[in-house]
Amino acid sequence: MFYSTGGYYFEVNQAKKKTIRISASKYHNQRAQGKPRVGDAVEIIIKPYSAYKTEKGVVADVLTKKETHSRGHKVRLASGSVGRMVRVL
User: Fold this and answer.
1) Where are the domains of the chain?
2) pLDDT in tens, 19-67
3) For the purposes of burial, counting CB atoms within 10 Å of the CB of 77, is it exposed (0-12), middle (13-18) or buried (19 or more)?
4) Taken in order 79, 67, 29, 12, is the CA torsion positive or negative?
5) I want to staple 12 with a disulfide (CB 3.0 to 4.6 A). Which of 1, 2, 72, 86 is the partner?
6) Is residue 3 within 8 Å of 86, Cβ to Cβ?
7) What is the CA 11 to chain-centroid distance, rounded?
8) pTM of the predicted protein model
9) Closest CA relative to residue 78, chosen from 61, 66, 55
């Protein structure tokens, strides 16, 4: 899972509960996955983001209108959960 704040980029390792700083190119390569489509299997992060709570599911609605988004596209899963996409499975 990746996020940015204050001009710095970070990768979160949930298994180790550790956050490391990464390069901007690695961050942008992960975010360049493109806009998800309805029916894609994805992993999302749910607010509050600082808790690093993630959930896997199938996209029911894409709530972000833009083709790319710096913090990840906001999607609604078939289960009803809303969050920002971390990765496509």
Assistant:
1) 2-88
2) 766 666 665 555 546 788 899 888 888 888 777 788 999 999 999 888 7
3) buried
4) negative
5) 1
6) no
7) 11
8) 0.64
9) 61
